[in-house]
Amino acid sequence: MNLESNPDRAIHLCRLSGALRGEDVPQYASGPEQRRREINDGAGRPAGEILADLAASAAQLEDAFAHCAAGWPNGNFRGGAHYGVFGCPAHRLREVEMHHVDPGLGYTPRDWPEEYVAWDHPELLSTVPERLASSGDRRQFIAWLAGQGPLDAEATLRPW
User: Fold this and answer.
1) Which residue in 159, 19, 2 sits closest to 89, CA to CA?
2) What residue ranges do the domains of the chain occupy?
3) Which pTM value belongs to this model?
4) Which of 71, 74, 153, 154 is deepest in the core (most CB within 10 A)?
5) Strand pairing partners for 157?
6) What does the buried/exposed string (b/e) look like for 77-88 if buried means 16 or more CB atoms within 10 Å of the residue's CB?
7) Residues 65, 38: Cα–Cα separation, whole Å
C-alpha cells in the first residue's frame, strides 16, 4: 500500500522512520495547504479502502513503535510540526479517536477513553487563542469561560 494513500499515516510513519535514521523529516513537505488538500481528497474514499488502509497503517506503525520500545531516538525532531517525533503516538491516537466518530455508526465523543481526553483536552485548549477569528470572539470566549454569559453562536474558531 502506498503511504500517500493516507496522509496521517504517511506523516507519522515517515517522521518516525526518519528519526530512526537520524533525519528530521518534515510534517508536510508543502505546508498546511498540503494537509487540507490531502484530507479533502481522502474524504470520499470507499469504506473498504479506508478500513484496509487503517489495518495496514496500524501494522506499519506497530513495527516502527517496536523499534523504539526503549524510547524515541531523536524524539525532539520537529520536522516543521509543533511537536517532536516523541509526540507522534499520541497524535496518532487523536486521529484514530477523532475519525472513529466520522462514520456516524454510534461511536461518539462520549465514548472517547478518559486517558485520551485527559491528554488532548489541554492540548486543544492551548490552540484556542490563535484560532479565534477576532478580538470580539476572544472577548466572548473569555466571558464564556468565566461563566459570564453564553458563547455567541457567531463566534468563529478556525480549524486546527
Assistant:
1) 19
2) 3-126, 128-160
3) 0.71
4) 74
5) 132
6) bebebebbbbbb
7) 25
